[in-house]
Amino acid sequence: MVLEFTIAAIFIYLPHFILFVPTTYISITHHVATIYVFSTCRYIINHGVFPILVILVLTEVTSACHNTWRISGFRRADLQIAARVQEFSPLYLWVLLCC
């Protein structure tokens, strides 16, 4: 039931992006890909919400790590702590291993 509701909600968001903000190609592509993944998990593979939630948790953790590492790379010349974060390679290795 959760996946059906989410798929329906994304179908509502998608025309909104296409009609009102057609230049946000990343958001439109993200919504199309999300509909594909949710529909595939629900109707073809017959899995429920739990496998998708596990994937979402992993992606959010790796996204936070990757964003921290990338932003610190931009600021490493200005801030000493950014340089230390940039040199902390296990953070980047965690992102690579989870992706």
Automatic annotation (TrEMBL):
The chain crosses the membrane at residues 7-28, 48-69. Keywords: Membrane, Transmembrane, Transmembrane helix. This is Uncharacterized protein.
